[in-house]
Design goal:
The chain is an alpha+beta fold. Helix content is 35%, strand content 18%. It is built from eleven helices and 13 strands. Bound molecules: adenosine-5'-triphosphate and magnesium ion (MG).
């Protein structure tokens, strides 16, 4: 099959940034977490090679303005979408929108689901409507007054539309209203978007890889996140520092356990809530879902990642590949399975 791997590389995102900001795009003006969602060429090439190893004719393309012309020239039969984009609240919908317009099948969720899942507030509103547990929250918009009456602290301040722990640092957790107000203002200014204030859940944390559609939705072995190896003083959370600063290939943190050692009952409860969230958000093909227990031990959904991180090196602590490996899927097998799942959904015979 002719497959295009549509990606957002760190280099491509830097080009986009420079194009938008011109001479203002000085490295010292760019926050350190700005390109956190871009993929390295190592990851992109590993994906391309994995699909090639299964006999597909694969071409990689940066998800940029010239991509439509490239699609029209290459005529892909399927687009493997891993493009996260850089600017705006609909950046993850760019490739699926183009595929919808050109009538090209693609892996993963549709533009609406990608846009909703990128907006933590909208996601939580839908989860709440369907009575799926998630931490209590409030949204704060730029240029609007901040009312905090009766909020239950401690709480965490997060930019509403980010991933990869962008904007989530150790000091994002706040203990009282004055601290929250300051952090909310600071975060709105820095990330130029609304923020959510969410009750901070102190229970155990898990991340759950789910794939498939309809009757064939399968939950992969659950990954438990443990915070024992974080430096002293670090809060028990998977912050930007924990993901990208303290955890390096040279000095990996022992942060994940897969399969998680939990009781069968607890496993079933976590799997159930993950499946339900997958369903109500109308996820397609695959997703990684973050779950944390509240003070009553009830699994709450923190957020859904319908474009899950897929770092190829097992040392890199990437959770979807880790869960898949535990279930017996090598990296190439995992990616080719995603292609199969998408192809089956479209009725394409491989
Ligand atoms: N309400 C909360 N209570 C407790 N911990 C939280 C809460 N919200 C976020 N965290 C911590 O911060 C981490 C990052 O938060 P979240 O998953 O919302 O951000 P993200 O940037 O979308 O992450 P990802 O890398 O999965 O895209 C979580 O894994 C968790 O450890
Ligand atoms: Mg997360």
């Amino acid at each position: 099959m002719k497959i295009v791997v549509a990606y957002s590389s760190k280099e491509g995102l830097l080009e986009e940034y420079k194009f938008r900001y011109g001479s203002d795009a000085q490295p010292e003006n760019i926050p350190p977490d700005f390109f956190a969602e871009g993929d390295t060429m190592e990851t992109i090439n590993a994906v391309i090679e994995a699909l090639r190893s299964n006999g597909h004719h694969v071409v990689g393309m940066e998800a940029n303005d010239i991509m439509q012309g490239m699609f029209e020239r290459f005529h892909p039969e399927l687009v493997f979408n891993m493009a996260e984009g850089l600017f705006g609240d609909f950046r993850e919908s760019f490739v699926p929108m183009m595929c919808e317009k050109l009538n090209i099948p693609y892996t993963g969720s549709d533009p609406l689901t990608l846009a909703i899942c990128l907006n933590k507030a909208r996601t939580k509103e839908i989860l709440s409507y369907y009575l799926i547990p998630n931490p209590a929250f409030k949204v704060f918009y730029p240029h609007e007054p901040i009312y905090l009456k009766d909020f239950d602290f401690p709480a965490i301040v997060k930019p509403v539309s980010e991933g990869s722990s962008k904007g989530i640092f150790n000091d994002s957790v706040v203990d009282h209203s004055a601290m929250a107000k300051h952090k909310i203002q600071d975060s709105i200014l820095k990330y130029n978007q609304p923020v959510i204030l969410e009750k901070f859940l102190k229970g155990d944390e898990y991340t759950v890889a789910v794939w498939g559609n309809g009757e064939d939705i399968e939950v992969l072995p659950i990954v438990a996140i443990s915070y024992n190896s974080l430096p002293e003083g670090a809060l028990p959370m998977y912050s930007y520092e924990a993901k990208w600063v303290w955890d390096t290939p040279g000095n990996p943190l022992e942060i994940f356990q897969c399969p998680a050692t939990i009781s069968a009952v607890q496993r079933e409860r976590i799997e159930d809530v993950a499946r339900e969230a997958y369903q109500v958000l109308q996820i397609r093909d695959w997703c990684r879902i973050d779950v944390r227990l509240d003070e009553n031990g009830i699994p709450n959904i923190l957020e859904l990642n319908p474009l899950p991180g897929i770092l190829p090196d097992p040392k890199d602590n990437s959770c979807f590949p880790k869960a898949a490996r535990t279930a017996g899927y090598t990296y190439p097998k995992m990616l080719n399975k995603v292609v199969e799942i998408a192809a089956r959904r479209y009725g394409i015979r491989l």
